[in-house]
């Protein structure tokens, strides 16, 4: 007696109606969104832990030193997010990625040129933000995109707050207490943003794929 294996057919992909035609969302699309959201969560948690060490354990040398690997984790996770985020405007996407590269190279240079811990170097030498700040400009770009697409309160807070804190520190116009308050708000809003992304409908993060196809065809037509 022989047994015949029964294979379960894969579900038919759901068809969506886009602005420029129909499209389907593949398994690869969904995996990309999961990677994007996971990276955002890792980035937010790393940033939150590092910020808490800076706010509450600034007098502990080991805590300050621990901020360096946490920042590295934050930055790398942010880089993965920028690789997997869906943005209709390719140029904007590339600019955000370029900002991240500039910020990462700057952080690497400053971390090795100064004998002090990375966090102390950045805080005591605000001009370093002309380099490292590009990483946070890329992060702000994500906040702006998410706020524009999904009307999220936390991203509307973060979009102006991040440059306000960094530029305020660069110009020396913010008191230490004001910087601490703004950093605390940043941490909370960033975590809320990352947490809310985990429960958002996946297709929403993918967007209208027909728009991507249309813009791609437009670029090819100009070549």
Explained architecture:
It is a single chain. This protein is mainly alpha-helical. The chain has nine helices and two strands. The chain has helices spanning 27-56, 61-84, 90-113, 118-124, 129-150, 153-171, 176-198, 202-206, 209-222, and strands at 15-18, 21-24. A two-stranded antiparallel sheet has the order 1-2. α1 (27-56) packs antiparallel against α2.
Order of helices and strands: EEHHHHHHHHH
Q: Compute the number of strand runs.
A: 2
Structural class of the helices, strands and pairings?
mainly alpha
Radius of gyration: 21 Å
Overall shape: it is elongated
Low-confidence stretches: 1-5
Strand arrangement, largest sheet?
1-2
SSE arrangement:
Layout: E1 15-18, E2 21-24, H1 27-56, H2 61-84, H3 90-113, H4 118-124, H5 129-150, H6 153-171, H7 176-198, H8 202-206, H9 209-222
Antiparallel strand pairs: 1-2
Q: What key attributes describe this structure?
A:
single chain; elongated; two-stranded antiparallel sheet; 4% strand; 223 residues; mainly alpha
Quick description:
With 223 residues, the chain is mainly alpha-helical.
